[in-house]
Amino acid sequence: MLIKNTIIKKIGGKPGKTVAVFCGVHGNEKAGVYAVTNVLKNVKIKKGVVYFVYANPEAIKRNIRMIKKNLNRCFLKDNKGKTPEDKRARKLMKILDKCDGLLDLHASNVEKATPFVICEKQSYALAKIFDVGIVSSGWDRIEPGATDGYMNKKKGALSLGIECGYAGESEKNMQLAKKSIFQFLQFFGLMDKRVDFNKREQKNINVTKAIKKNTDNFYFTKKWKDFDLLKKGEIIAYDSRKKHIAGKNECIIFANASKKKGQEAFIIGKVK
Ligand SMILES: [Zn+2]
């Protein structure tokens, strides 16, 4: 998918908040990319300023996660890296510096993935409005350099990421992404009402650990889905002879045995 303008600035007629909607931070996660493209065709911004951003255009074009580096680890103030992603992050941080809010649209590489929100406590009121059943926090600490983590350092800013479901079902999941964009813009009062806010209860999960794969002989004991609840003492995976064992009230997220040695194989969360 070729994108001509990668940063589209829409200005409302009246003063208001400045926000950003990011998609394609990971180029193969298309739900957000399709949604932004669709929303841009008919959105009317009434107040404030909205930046619609195709975050990693080259990766989107090639339908790959990244060119050289995970863009979602490059949003660090002192970033001096030389990869295309580092350069792009420096450009996009300048936009985020102007913003009061960020919505970053992602998708999961796990089949049958449950949509969920990634945010910290200060953005819980915003997280509530979206049609997802799970709100997870704690990511800043275990995975620094993400877009929302960068925004969280800014006082008063609200920011979150939404995982819109399995990346292999982007056509279907773009509906959730699209509705989330409208809900987000409505929350900040930037457009006329179009959609309702979520009314259902959400479950809170705090992520605590990112577990890396240490050997090539790594395998899971089950085909874990995101947020599968683990029984205390249950074996999650083997990494050669090392066993990964579940603790109390834990769940598993982003289980992926096909990662390279040294990369993250799964994440552990605590159910609150
Ligand atoms: Zn992603």
TrEMBL record:
Its cofactor is Zn(2+). Residues 15-185 form the Succinylglutamate desuccinylase/Aspartoacylase catalytic domain. One of its GO terms (molecular function) is metal ion binding. The keyword Metal-binding applies. The keyword Coiled coil does not apply. Keywords: Hydrolase, Metal-binding, Zinc. GO terms for cellular component: cytosol. This is Succinylglutamate desuccinylase/Aspartoacylase catalytic domain-containing protein. It comes from Candidatus Nealsonbacteria bacterium CG23_combo_of_CG06-09_8_20_14_all_37_18.
